[in-house]
Amino acid sequence: MISKLSDRAFRQDLEDAERCLPRLLADPHYGPILRARGADQELDDMRREWRERLERQRARRLRYESSFAEG
Questions:
Q1: Is the distance from CB of 63 to CB of 56 less than 8 angstroms?
Q2: Whole-structure pTM value
Q3: Contact 21, 40 (CB under 8 A)
Q4: Assign residue 38 a region: left if phi > 0, alpha if psi is -120 to 50, beta otherwise?
Q5: Which of 9, 18, 35, 39 is packed most tightly, with the most Cβ within 10 A?
């Protein structure tokens, strides 16, 4: 499901998570805590949502471009 954040805000959140979470998940102290809270699954969900946002953006662009071809 697509969140209500703008693409720019969501991308910033995703970049922050990709920057911080892998190191924290590898840490012997914080890793088990974050995995118990589902941080690794949350990162996967964010990546999946970003791919979906990109697909929708491409579809909008193609519809926009095809509208010029029709008229």
A1: no
A2: 0.83
A3: yes
A4: left
A5: 39
